Amino acid sequence: MLIVMRSDATAEQIARVVATIAELKLTPHPLPGATRTAIGMTGNTAAVSKSLFEVLPGVENAIRVTKPYKLASREMKKDDTVIGNIGPKTFTVIAGPCSVENEEITLRMAEHLMNKGVRYLRAGAFKPRSSPYSFQGLGLEGLRILERVRAKTGIGIVTELMDTEHAAAVEAASDIIQIGTRNMQNFGLLKRVGQCRKPVLLKRGMSATLEEWLMAAEYIMAGGNYEVILCERGVRTFSDHSRNTLDLSVVPVAKNLSHLPVFVDPSHGVGKRAYVPAMTYASMASGADGVLLEAHPDPDHALSDGAQTIDFDTLDAVLAKLTAMANLFGRTLG
Ligand code: PEP
Ligand code: MN
Fold first, then answer.
1. Mean pLDDT of 238-260
2. Are residues 184 and 44 in the same domain?
3. Residue 144 sits in a domain of what CATH number?
4. Residue 157 lies in domain
């Protein structure tokens, strides 16, 4: 159930609803919106009577959420969720190498991005590689490099968490924690990042439906971390002209069903660098709130995913075109 507060509800009135939910041994989830606060409740809500809440001061109404995902649903919150600068007014570019390779490349990348106004660097220290013989990432040493680069440049860090064991270390080194496609239904990991106090970028599982993806977001939110960014990165289909099939059609639907920001990762979506710019522009047109791009000073010598990685010149051209396009879509490049 969802309790919608009146727009003039006081903090005390909100606190009273929260306390009433807790007395029922249910978990309250207050989500402030632009105009009003809505308070979700999770646990067994089947027997809870709406009138219990509708009589409380400051309550507008109580609504039964019909979707299997609750906190992630648009029913829960009409306004788009804004996470830092990420939201409906901006289009946020997150770029960088697939992996943290060494300090020199990571720093060069971060400095280039900061000069171009890009405020987030992506780079994996822990890499989920299909082959155990491929480069597995620098692990904890990679996180130390990211921390030093963040300290030197002030750039925000987006890096993947693969297992619960490294949750605290990744949380400390990152500004956004990435959960990869292969872990979208790793429920132990989702519950663990639900305890983190950093936003989570949740990639869509490569064969997950939209509902399964939103349920994965719900796992994180049910733990009390409401800052989830959805990221489409391509799904498995019969098509073999691209690494995956970038499902841009999911973007407007996800934004309709959920208030969470939706990103697109064209790099993993197409798998070939020549096609990354076109699908980046298409991502903005689809209504996405941002993109995750693999970029590297020397993509041909990247230690992972070089084939889909763009160089600095291409990145600069993409940023220039996105800046021009952003006006059309009522956004500014963030
Ligand atoms: C990545 O971002 O480098 C990555 C491994 O992504 P995905 O989980 O989408 O394959
Ligand atoms: Mn990659």
1. 98
2. no
3. 3.20.20.70
4. 90-333
pTM (two decimals): 0.96
pLDDT value of residue 45: 64
* Distance between CA atoms of residues 83 and 92, nearest Å: 11
**Residue ID of nearest Cα to ligand 1 atom 2:** 98
**What residues are in contact with ligand 1 under a 6 Å CB criterion?**
98, 124, 128, 180-182, 203, 233, 265, 268
The C-alpha atoms of residue 204 and residue 214 are separated, in whole angstroms, by: 9
pLDDT per position as a tens digit, 128-153: 999 999 999 999 999 999 999 999 99
Q: Is the pLDDT of residue 46 over 80?
A: no
Closest CA to 28 of 12, 11, 6, 45: 45
Ligand 2 centroid vs 126 CA: distance in angstroms? 11
In sequence order, the 6+-apart residues with CB closer than 8 A to the CB of 15 are none
Count of beta carbons in the 10 Å neighbourhood of residue 213: 24
Tell me the residues surrounding ligand 2 (ion) with CB < 5 Å. Answer: 98, 305
In a domain? residue 81: no
Q: What is the pLDDT of residues 155-189, one digit of tens each?
A: 999 999 999 999 999 999 999 999 999 999 999 99
Domain count, the chain: 2
Residue type, 91: F
Does 47 reside within a domain?
A: yes
